[in-house]
Design brief:
It comes from Mucilaginibacter pocheonensis. Pfam families: TPR_1, TPR_16, TPR_2, TPR_8. Keywords: Repeat, Signal, TPR repeat. This is Tetratricopeptide (TPR) repeat protein. By secondary structure, this protein is an all-alpha fold. Helix content is 76%, strand content 0%. Helix 15 packs parallel to helix 17 and helix 28 runs antiparallel to helix 30. The termini are far apart.
């Protein structure tokens, strides 16, 4: 790691008057950053007196400032020949050597400087940097530790030692150093990013994501923080969150290395193969000669059943890198799909030849042999693989498949069981073992395996299907109704799921039980967050605030800590505010912001503070919203209200102008303000704003809906219902439900 040293021109001592004058003129020029002129003056001084260590030292400094480090090193060396105990000359010479990558000589000179000034923290710091650059991380850590003895409150030293600890592989110590640095300088964004990287290395993905989020709060334009947070989310299996972050990184810096490739992989993992293919195409355009891009794109094309396209990509990948056994393994699989069984076998042979100790190579060849009906060869290859590593869950799985194909179901079940013993989360092993147990009439064992599969993969529809098809499955589980209620939530159009749940209910004596709609699903499975949130939002839009509150309460009993829960707290806080429970609203919105800061949450909290007349606090929240999203028109409009309350008329006018500038339309701004004014008990002001909005867009049904709500607040029921009906006529999605509620 290079660190540039700012060179200091020291006070002059006197020599012969002419030499002193040249040195003084040189320093004057250097202080004015006229380094070439300074060099000329110092050279004149040296010509008059080539024994002046000061002249050589100052000229070296000037050379360093124009990055002519070799000339600087030569002058420092000359100064040291004249003055061997010149500590600063050793120090600056060492830094110049570091700047040209001559780290070993730099370390030697730092040694000499430190011998002369053993209590100079900077010398230890820069020697530590040089040691880091030659990967002597232990030596660097020792130097940074020594420096901290003389500069205990130096954030940079903790940061540098943390980086060295990280590079050495001592991630726990690195985290401790970053903790110390953050305590000293809590607003330095990159410290959180460094700490996040160390947390990833100890598999603390949750902690890493929190740190990357803090980094982005401090520096919203840090593309790398989005990129690495996406990687952490991928490692947690949150591929959707990862894709969102990769896209944000691309919006800031589309040139990040592997960005398109990683985005494509995440999309593929979340099942969006078409989206993944689009990003792999971008990656291929960016890295036309990168074999891995074509290799990974072939996997997506395989998932899309474009086997010819996959084969073309694998051919290209192998042409670019013919020593990668994985490419041959994958091409073997594609050739199997294209019924080129012999070609698949030849590719698998090549994979084994390239890496005779690769489990995957033997597994690939075993699959090719299976297609050629060489079952004995399959078992032989997989037995070799297991002998290489008897902890290979995949080898046992595929050998189990071979035994299954031979009709030896008990041997297959034994291998599946071993695979599960090695990997307790191996979904395919549970699936295949359950199928085979069902075939040998071990229905209880089959149900147990399918339930475990559902526990591991609760959105796999095939797992629910397999469970339901086990004869009399309800005899072996008490969870049939709950499981198939969840299945209906996953796919309400699948009639088999209704059948299976009906069967379970009938077995329990509930002959009338049936699923009619999402309400019934939520009633039977209150843990489905997405359904609860959706229904809660729908109820809120229909002004059924108590119903919405009940749904958000239920959802938060299931999940009160994840990023998703921030949305739940945010919406519950909004409902509580509408119900005038401002204390509860603030508590919920505080919780939402603490979990995941969003501009919308800050706006909602600012609105509540307006309602309780904490106008300064409201301004702060709206400022926070605008920090996160400078184009949030609602935040500008609402802060204008707060500033008006504080008597800042000009500020209010300017902010409202900004709202109109960034907002989609003026009508939207006035409609939104109307909703805010209703909460602030200014219903007449809300009506005035709606009237303005209607004058701007007379056919906007949502404006009439909002005006009707304001009129209803003033007990003008007849006029309110007229507005609701007008809103329905103009196509407002929520108006019919509101009218049904208020205009009976």
């Amino acid at each position: 790691m290079k660190k540039f040293l700012f060179l200091i021109f020291l006070p002059l001592s006197t020599f012969a008057q002419t030499v002193s004058t040249y040195i003084q003129n040189g320093n004057t020029s250097a202080n004015a950053k006229e380094y070439k002129a300074a060099i000329q003056y110092f050279t004149l001084a040296i010509q008059l007196n080539d024994k002046s260590d000061e002249a050589y030292f100052y000229r070296a400094n000037a050379y360093g400032n124009i990055k002519d480090y070799k000339a600087a090193i030569a002058d420092y060396a000359k100064a040291l020949s004249l003055k061997p105990n010149f500590a600063n000359a050793y120090y600056y010479k060492a830094n110049a050597e570091s700047n040209i990558g001559d780290y070993q000589n730099a370390i030697n000179d730092f040694d000499k400087a430190i011998a002369l000034e053993p209590q100079n923290a900077k010398m230890y710091q820069y020697r530590g940097n040089a040691k880091s650059n030659i990967k002597d991380y232990a030596g660097a850590i020792t130097d940074f530790t020594l420096a901290l003895k003389f500069a205990a409150d130096n954030t940079e030293l903790y940061e540098l030692r943390g980086l060295a600890q990280n590079n050495k592989g001592d991630f726990t110590s690195a985290i401790n150093d970053y903790d110390a640095a953050i305590k000293l300088t809590p607003k330095k964004a990159e410290l959180y990013r460094y700490r996040a990287g160390a947390k990833v290395n100890v598999n603390d993905y949750r902690g890493a994501i929190a740190d990357y989020t803090t980094t982005l709060t401090l520096d919203p334009q840090d593309a790398e923080a989005y990129f690495y947070r996406a990687n952490a989310r991928s490692n947690q299996g949150d591929f959707k969150g990862a894709v969102d972050d990769y896209k944000k990184a691309a919006a800031i810096n589309p040139g990040l290395k592997n960005l398109f490739l990683y985005t494509a992989n995440a999309m593929s993992n979340m099942g969006d193969n078409k989206g993944a293919l689009d990003y792999f195409n971008k990656a291929a355009a960016q890295f036309q000669n990168k074999a891995d891009v074509y290799l990974y794109r072939s996997l997506v094309k395989t998932n899309l059943k474009d086997f010819n396209g996959a084969l073309e990509d694998l051919n290209r990948s192998i042409a670019l890198d013919n020593k990668n056994p994985e490419a041959y393994q994958n091409r073997s699989g594609v050739k199997l799909e294209l019924n080129d069984n012999q070609g698949a076998k030849l590719d698998a042979d090549t994979a084994v030849t390239l890496n005779p100790k690769s489990l995957k190579a033997y597994v690939s060849r075993s699959k090719a042999k299976m297609a050629l009906k060489d079952t004995a060869g399959v078992i032989a290859d997989l037995t070799l693989a297991i002998n290489i590593n008897n902890k290979s869950d995949e080898a046992y799985l595929v050998r189990g498949d071979a035994y299954r194909n031979m009709g030896n179901r008990q041997a297959a079940i034994r291998d599946y069981t071993t695979a599960i013993r090695i990997n307790a989360s191996y979904t395919y092993a549970y699936l295949n073992r359950g199928i085979e147990k069902d075939k040998v009439n071990d229905h209880a064992g089959a149900v147990k395996d399918f339930e475990k599969l559902i526990e591991l993969s609760p959105k796999r529809e095939d797992a629910y299907m397999r469970l339901g098809k086990v004869p009399d499955f309800f005899k072996y589980t008490n969870n049939g109704i709950q499981l198939f209620t969840t299945a209906i939530g996953l796919n309400p159009a699948n009639s088999d799921f209704y059948l299976f749940r009906g069967t379970a209910k009938a077995a329990a004596g509930d002959m009338k039980g049936a699923m009619a709609d999402y309400d019934a699903g939520i009633t039977k499975n209150p843990g489905n967050i997405s359904l609860l949130l959706k229904r809660g939002l729908s109820r809120a839009a229909a002004e059924d605030n108590n119903g919405a509150l009940a749904d958000f309460n239920t959802a938060l009993k299931v999940d009160s800590i994840s990023d998703t829960s921030a949305v739940l707290y945010q919406n519950r806080g909004h409902i509580k505010a509408k119900l005038k429970n401002y204390k509860g609203a603030i508590a919920d919105l505080d919780k939402a912001v603490s979990i995941y800061s969003s501009d919308e949450a800050f706006v909602l909290r600012g609105d509540v503070k307006l309602a309780i007349k904490d106008y300064a606090g409201a301004v702060d929240d709206f400022h926070n919203a605008l920090y996160l999203n400078p184009n949030n028109a609602k935040a500008y409009a609402h802060i204008s209200v707060a500033k008006n309350k504080l008597g800042d008329k000009q500020g209010a006018t300017d902010d409202f102008a900004s709202a109109l500038k960034v907002g989609a339309s003026g009508a939207d701004i006035y409609t939104d303000l109307a909703a805010l004014k209703i909460m602030l008990n200014d219903a007449q002001g809300a009506i005035d704003d709606c009237n303005t909005a209607i004058s701007l867009t007379p056919k906007n049904g949502d404006v009439y809906l909002q005006r009707g709500i304001a009129k209803f607040t003033l007990n003008e029921k007849t006029e309110a219902c007229a507005d609701f009906n007008k809103a329905v006529e103009l196509g407002s999605k929520n108006a019919a439900a509101v009218a049904a509620r208020y205009c009976k």
